[in-house]
Amino acid sequence: MPVVKFKVNRVLQSLDIDLDQLEELLFRLKCETEIDEEGYIYIELNPDRPDMYSLEGIVRSVKGLLGREKGFVLPKTTTSDIKIMPEHVASRPIVAGAVIRGLNLDDDGIEELMQFQEKLHDTIGRRRRKVAIGIHDFDKLPNKEIFYKEVDINESYMKPLNRNETLSVREVLLKTEQGRKYGNISLRGSKHPALIAGGEIISLPPVINSEVTRVEPGTRNLFIDVTGTDLRSVLGVLDIITCNLAYMGGKVDKVKIFYEDKVMETPYLSVKELNADPKELSKIIGVELKPSTIKDALERARYVVELDEQGLLKVKVPPFRVDVLGTADLAEDVAIMVGYEKIGVKKNPVTLRGNLLKMTLLKRKLRDILVGLGFTEIIQLTLLSPEIIKALNMENKALIVSNPVQIEHSVIRPSLIVSLLDFLRENQHKEKPIKVFEIGKVAFREGEYIIEEERMALAVMNSSVSYEDIQAPLYSILKVLSLKYDVKAFDLPFFLKGRSAILLVDEAETGWLGEMSPEVLEKLRIEYPIAVAEIRLSSLTGEGSYKIRSL
């Protein structure tokens, strides 16, 4: 959950209320608060309200809750002389911009603005991977024509923020804190995105801005760039920033962006329109409310609302409410404005009782049986080393993770036998016999399909192990479950020839059992013989199996 902090006095002065009122009003807006000894208030917000990550957004919401202000007014815009000329930037192709004039930023205002920027980075921006924001002093721009393109990190130079030395882009990525944290997000080989004005790199999105356009106390005019991988998110973030800065008195200038196939002017300041039936909203909330009450509540939630002759609501959603998607979101805001304490609680009668799935009941029973037979349950990771898959000759069935964190955990297990062997290899020098079982999911490729299903496997390791050591407990399980079964000799590639079989339940292939091949054990560096069995639980219950066509 994002947490923002402000000086308590700045918040109270902006709202002209006392501290108790502030905490109560913020609680109604789904916020938790805490005040420290240094006079800061910490506000924990829901991640669905990025418009409230700044002081202006909180003030706007609280004034609406109090009924002091209603609806919203779109900022008046003119077109600036800023032009952004994007080239092909493969790693983050979208760029947008805006100019905000007439601000008067002091130290507190700059601190809050930087905090606002970082909270947007961490939430909507997915830690800068999806969206990144650059904030510049407009009056320090070397040129009003800005190029957005990839630069060679070895041949391009800039003066990064908070440094007086000029560094190559490679040095920026290696030596600065931001470079080490975010330098790999958009790097392609030796190429990295950059915003260039008058031959100067003013921003290295999503990493760092330049010292050249540093925002300082007294800065009055801002140029804001937003880059990213998703157009909707980039435009939404820019709308939020623009509306919040305009609410504190800023004048908005649009920026022209000259793509190869079109010219855009941003910010869009998009207003979404929704139609809502008061009866439907009342039904969602759970209490009958008058259309006039709902209209007033939505207006205090900062929507513009019209009630037509048929009693339906036409709701205009402000650009800064990018979280609002439909009627359910409107209903929540109505409930907040009316007050949950005034709505009351209605207890709905329980008409249905839940039941455990057949698969759940089967797994519980199997655990009881196996523990009674002297087996110990283990729980292994579903991701395994390709070494084990190769030893069992299962590469054609295995699903490989395309971008694994570790190569030792890069293949999804196609069989529980693989997991048991991995466990026994790591524990082979413990006291014998070792008798273990596991119940869990596997996933594997079969022809053009990918199949996921529930299975159970058991294994016995000892200084001397035979087929009968695994056959006896398996037969005991099948008899306790009252299953009609048959076993037929069948050679599988990872079992010892002539010492393995397939299990048939109701004439359907349901599992297999046998002694592990010495060649497989040698490849896995296992020194003791092992006997294993595996059952497809999905075939016993008809549950827990999923089949999709492979791409």
- What is the helix fraction of residues, given as a range? 25-40%
Mean pLDDT: 93
Structural class: alpha+beta
Can you count the beta strands? 29
Distance between the termini: 36 Å
Notes on the structure:
The protein has 551 residues and is of the alpha+beta class. The chain contains 17 helices and 29 strands. The strands form six sheets. Strands 4, 5, 6, 7, 10, 11, 12, 13, 14 and 15 form a ten-stranded mixed sheet that branches. Strands 19, 23, 24, 25, 26, 27, 28 and 29 form an eight-stranded mixed sheet that branches. It has a three-stranded antiparallel sheet with strand order 1-3-2. Strand 25 (485-489) and strand 26 form a beta hairpin. Helix 9 packs across helix 10. The protein starts with a strand and ends with a strand. The model has no long low-confidence stretch (mean pLDDT 93).
Fold blueprint:
Elements: E1 3-7, H1 8-15, H2 19-28, E2 32-35, E3 40-44, H3 55-66, E4 77-86, E5 94-101, H4 107-122, E6 131-137, E7 145-152, E8 157-158, E9 167-168, H5 169-175, H6 177-182, E10 191-197, E11 200-204, E12 208-209, E13 222-228, H7 231-247, E14 251-258, E15 263-266, E16 272-276, H8 278-285, H9 291-300, E17 304-307, E18 313-317, H10 327-338, H11 340-343, H12 358-372, E19 376-377, E20 383-384, H13 386-391, E21 399-400, E22 411-412, H14 416-426, E23 434-446, E24 449-461, H15 467-480, E25 485-489, E26 495-505, E27 508-516, H16 518-523, E28 530-536, H17 537-541, E29 546-549
Parallel strand pairs: 4-7, 4-14, 19-23
Antiparallel strand pairs: 1-3, 2-3, 5-13, 5-14, 6-13, 7-10, 8-9, 10-11, 11-12, 14-15, 16-18, 17-18, 20-22, 21-22, 23-24, 24-28, 24-29, 25-26, 26-27, 27-28
Helix pairs in contact: 8-10, 9-10
